[in-house]
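# step 3/5: fold
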Amino acid sequence: MTTAAEIMHPGAEWIPATETLDRAAQLMRRLDVGALPISDADERMCGILTDRDIVIGCVAEGRDPSRVTAGDMARGTPRWIEASADVSQVLEEMQSHRIRRLPVVENKRLVGMISEADIAHHLTDDQIAKFVENVYAHS
């Protein structure tokens, strides 16, 4: 059984909901990632911020990224998976919610992130094909 912990990219970091988008972009650059889980004051996940969110939801709208916070961009119900979850559960979570990145938690702490690249490196061609069809297909 392959687990989420085995395919995740370890060392993911939170971005506090109160942090500005310019600082979030700097953290993304430093970590070489395209998404950061957003945490509230109690370190509970309240969303995920992507590089696309910053560009489309802030910059393209003429807003100042030094004045917009990560929390301002948090929308919807955040999804995550336990580190011990089987890869089939990872795929089901990502496919059923049509998401491309999934935070991994262990003992209620963020321990990593699973991205499309992680999926591509660890799954069979058939699993990848099904994932792509389910996440990207128009319904």
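# step 4/5: annotate
The first helix runs from residue 4 to 7.
# step 5/5: archive (pending)
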